[in-house]
């Protein structure tokens, strides 16, 4: 009998344990965290799971005893040591912790392997940099010089610097929160982390709308920007001598949407890494072209750097708040951080936060090299003469349309179009993931390719319909953007406090409470400022009449 038990306890690299409907999971040969010292002296290590409740030893892992999945009994027995070889599936990456060393079966959703965000887990630091760059630079950055017209040189640069450091810190928090050593789980989506931390009710109230707005709303805005830039690109190339009948604005929106829908058929987030690289290069390109043209052409006549004054104190306060909002809106992509990190493999020796943070540092160093020259150079060249609508994009064509070569103007428009098409893919991916998850949850099988194609096409043309039907949606950008501000500046701090539970009145406790409350207050103030602007300036309602 002893010899039979000894043979059963021999662990080999190709032995697996099957539990319920879970995929085959390799058994670790690492030693349990708590065993008898005598057993340690003889080189004992953890055997496979024992289901016999009559085990005389009565020993169990304290780490697993708290888990509802298993009730393991561990018997310290002399077995030969075998170097383990990992057969772990890409979507199952347990973390280094006492739980894993006690033969951890991590709680995970096997359906993740069927969803576009987590379907492929072979990403790396380069992919993270590509995705972060593509999602982190956008059209809102072109309006940064407008905020300086109210804040002035000193407060404008200070506000931009503080906002950049603040959002980089909250980004670091999200990267660290992706993996939990306590539960052995990977939180691959922002809403998943928020729901796991604060519950479904709080998620539905505070997180669902901002996350969906930052995905779906951004895609609608990209259709407007991309379609308009396509029209401008055609007009620059064709010129006034062109005799062909040009397309209408709606038709240009449709051309852009068709291109975005075709590209959206790429299956998962890792598969669009090349697309994100192209989007990042073009974003860097048009930002650099704009501030270089502005600086090389020199300051306009009559430029003033005195902060603008309003007629009343109330109007002045809301102008300052609006300027702070412009700076805050320039930083985006936090709603995609966990999703990007979810495409990476993770293990106890190589956790995913290491390559992710390396890629983020590279990406945001380049982002800083784009945003700061754009804001400072644009304000130096145009001062208070910079157009409030469109910022640098409008100023280039308005002030330098005649003395700048057509090639530079056309190249700038082309870069904006390509960046918009590329950004559509990464911002639309959480929506694709959500749509497919509903099918998978209901039928417990992967979404077929034809249904995936139809659903993504419906999403793309749904955004097109909104862009055409409600062209004045941009008038609510400040109001809706204020609601989304906590995703970047507040929620990561509260998530860290709830999950990590730092010591009361410690540095991290004070820092995160301060930033979290300030971010929440900023959101409330910007929402109030957005309502004031809508009431004060009014909205020109024109359904199905895009300009």
Provide an overview of this structure.
This protein has 547 residues and is mainly alpha-helical. The chain is built from 19 helices and 2 strands. The chain has helices at residues 2-9, 37-41, 62-65, 98-101, 125-136, 144-177, 190-198, 200-238, 249-263, 273-297, 313-329, 337-341, 353-382, 392-400, 406-443, 449-469, 477-489, 491-500, 507-537, and strands at 16-17, 25-26. A two-stranded antiparallel ribbon has the order 1-2. A hairpin with a 7-residue loop joins strand 1 and strand 2. Helix 8 packs antiparallel against helix 15. The longest helix is centred in the middle third of the chain and has 39 residues, at 200-238. It is globular and about 60 Å long. The protein starts with a helix and ends in a 10-residue tail after the last helix.
Which short descriptors sum up this protein?
disordered N terminus, mainly alpha, globular, 547 residues, two-stranded antiparallel sheet, single chain, 2 strands, 60% helix
Structure at a glance:
By secondary structure, the chain is mainly α. Helix content is 60%, strand content 1%. It has helices at 2-9, 37-41, 62-65, 98-101, 125-136, 144-177, 190-198, 200-238, 249-263, 273-297, 313-329, 337-341, 353-382, 392-400, 406-443, 449-469, 477-489, 491-500, 507-537; strands at 16-17, 25-26.
